[in-house]
Design goal:
alpha/beta, six-stranded parallel beta sheet
């Protein structure tokens, strides 16, 4: 029997290490777990914080092609699991019949979906009506955009304690390329043509969309809007909403509930750890 690969794609402001618990959990269930970083991403969080220059040219084109090549390299088509911008890429790939199934967790918007305005006093890149970030984090001048520990707690890990948020920040949070934010339609930039998914493809593998209902960065409404776009496809598309969960739902103290739901969903659709 052959083991089924799972490729995890991390999202904005997180290092590939953010999948460490998921990779261990999936491996314990018999899957081959892979957590490849972005092109040019240093191996450690500390190294990436000290020197992220290799990421400055990473945009959605490069990122999508990078993961398409990885997923295509396996003899057995992998399951693709992505968070945030990784969730957008997962949808794009499965819509192009790359991979055998995909899970998009709090995914960045695809196609013509627009993020709602953020809550008052909350800065989110690309929205002009929130608090501006510090000068070191502005999109206009810095090729890399960083989050402070306070910003991370305010709109990424907003459902956990300040202490837990600080721990998550120290372990996982890194700068991200301004170019990628622009490709996602932030800072009044036109969205990249690659920020799309073929929602009408009836021949693709199963797709699961997951949202956190307290997510302030990619609100539940945006994920529900994506789910509606798949309404005319005959391919399997499911939606799972987690109450009281924020954008940090893959790394915070409730990560196991999300991971185990995904494992159960895969099993339900015949996507098991071993294939004959």
């Amino acid at each position: 029997m052959n083991r089924t690969p799972v490729v995890f794609i991390h999202g904005a402001w997180l290092h590939a290490l953010s999948w460490e618990s998921w990779a261990e959990r999936f491996a314990s269930r018999g899957f081959l777990a892979f957590t490849p970083g972005w092109p040019g991403e240093p191996l450690t969080v500390g190294e990436m914080r000290r020197s992220s220059e290799g990421l400055t040219d990473v945009g959605l084109d490069l990122l999508t092609d990078h993961y398409a090549k990885i997923v295509d390299s396996f003899d057995i088509a992998p399951v693709i699991i992505g968070h945030s911008v990784g969730g957008l890429i997962a949808q794009h790939l499965i819509g192009a019949n790359i991979g055998q199934a995909a899970v998009a967790i709090a995914p960045a918007p695809v196609n013509d979906i627009v993020l709602p305005a953020p809550p008052t006093g909350l800065w989110i890149p690309g929205h002009a009506d929130g608090d501006a970030p510090p000068a070191s984090g502005t999109l206009a001048f810095d090729p890399l955009v960083s989050l402070s520990a306070e910003q991370f707690h305010r709109f990424v890990a907003n459902t956990v304690t300040e202490e837990e948020s600080a721990r998550l920040y120290d372990r996982y949070v890194v700068p991200m390329p301004r170019r990628l934010l622009a490709d996602l339609g932030c800072a009044d930039s036109p969205r990249s043509p690659r920020a799309v998914a073929d929602v009408g493809n009836a021949d693709r593998g199963p797709l699961l969309l997951i949202s956190g209902q307290e997510d302030l960065l990619v609100p539940d409404a945006a994920t529900r809007a994506a789910y509606k776009q798949y309404g005319d496809s005959m391919a399997v598309t499911d939606l799972k909403q987690f109450a009281d969960r924020a954008h940090s739902l893959i790394i915070d103290n409730g990560w196991r509930f999300v991971a185990d739901y995904v494992l159960g969903w895969l099993d339900e659709h015949g996507l098991r750890a071993h294939s004959l």
